[in-house]
Amino acid sequence: MKNFDNIFREYDIRGIFEKELNEKSVKAIGLSLGEVFKEKGVKKVSIGYDARLSGEEIFKYLISGLNFHNLEIYDIGMLPTPVGYFSVFTKLFDANIMITGSHNPKNYNGFKITIGKDSFFGEDLQNLKIKVKENLSSNLIIKDDFRAKNFDVLSKYLNYLAENFSHLKNLNLKIACDCANATAGIVLEPLKKALNLDMKILFSNPDGNFPNHHPDPSVNENLQDLKKELKDGFDIGFGFDGDSDRIAVLTKENNIKGDELAYLFALNLKEPKIVGEVKFSQNIYEIINKFGSTFIAKTGHSHIKKFLKNSDCDLGAEVSGHIFFNDRYFGFDDAIYAMLRVLEIIHYGTNLDLELSKLPKVYTTDEIKIDVDENDKFKIIDIFKEHINELNLPPIKEIIDIDGIRVHFDNGAWALLRASNTTPCLVARFEANDEYLKDEIRDKFMKLVNDIKFSL
């Protein structure tokens, strides 16, 4: 099966339905994962899925493999991924699997796996891949076995949010939310009623064809409907990705990135301890360090969740909009919870645009995505590192290589190049206090990347 190895990524399993993810392979994944669950003492497993058209079919294949091991399987239905996390972090279940393609094209799907409070990722996924390939090569026939009990975890999640944010009832704020026909509306519609929010919910009906726009709020073209609502009188807008673990926050003046959100939340925490990642603005790190402390982690929801679990940090964030609250929450990324925390700091008096305007002026690129062959992306990074000193760059102060290469220069500028762990691309970002300098560093980085790319 071409590219089958590549579906076992750093944080999750993700592939194209009916190609890498078909009846045979998904049943083998379920069978192999069931072996892991039994080894780890897992008995009760909750399984949900996002709005993709393949979700229910993949669910049946997956539980056929899992049921081979006589586990207790619970169908929690179509839900945001964070509701699945909630089901294990509140100890209702021993493990959770969310069937989701996140923000990938609509023909993709995949699995995000949690055992207890631990993400199943990295080396664990690579070891699982070996088991899956062994089971596939054995030609074992896995019969259809769709046994699963229905379980309503959504009501418990909604009650938790309504109780913990009861002070936001009747909030005097005009809110627009764009669900992108994915899963956020499943929660937002009843939450709006529970808190009596003045909220307009766009595209709340789940539809795996994503007829209005793709469910990726990190792409500007997917935010046009929200921007129109802000022009028409709404105060704030929120956009959600395919499985509602990633958020975009828009005001009339700003599209607030994840690192800027971390700064705004930090302003409202006592002696905040904030975990960022390699794409974070250095400007944000330095400002937070004046009244709190910051830590840098690898990009990726699994890496940041692990960091938070093993620390007393209050909050983790990624530029892309994954926000993780340890403070008053469970430490996993939840876009709907993050939305409520944004509304809360506004309620308590934070003017988002005003606070952002106080930050020192720097020139920062958005994430620049460079399409490459899946098999070449890490090779390109390795070759790039070997040639970094040939670029005639400003004097280098520090190189951080925990995730790709992040270069800090003596003049305060920085540059990043890393391989995406979810898509076949490289990600770059550049920042300087001078726009010409930012562009100069960007151009030199990009030229070397393209030279390497076309030489392979």
Automatic annotation (TrEMBL):
The keyword Lipid metabolism is annotated on this UniProt entry: no
GO molecular function ontology, one term from the record: intramolecular phosphotransferase activity
* Top-level taxonomic group: Bacteria
Query: Single Gene Ontology BP term?
Result: carbohydrate metabolic process
Q: Which residues form the Alpha-D-phosphohexomutase alpha/beta/alpha domain?
A: 6-124, 156-253, 258-353
Domain Alpha-D-phosphohexomutase C-terminal: residue ranges = 367-447
Q: Which cofactors does this protein require?
A: Mg(2+)
Q: List the InterPro entries.
A: A-D-PHexomutase_a/b/a-I (IPR005844), A-D-PHexomutase_a/b/a-I/II/III (IPR016055), A-D-PHexomutase_a/b/a-II (IPR005845), A-D-PHexomutase_a/b/a-III (IPR005846), A-D-PHexomutase_C (IPR005843), A-D-PHexomutase_C_sf (IPR036900), Alpha-D-phosphohexomutase_SF (IPR005841)
**Keywords on record:** Isomerase, Magnesium, Metal-binding, Phosphoprotein
User: Which protein family is it in?
Assistant: Belongs to the phosphohexose mutase family.
Please give the name of this protein.
Phosphomannomutase/phosphoglucomutase
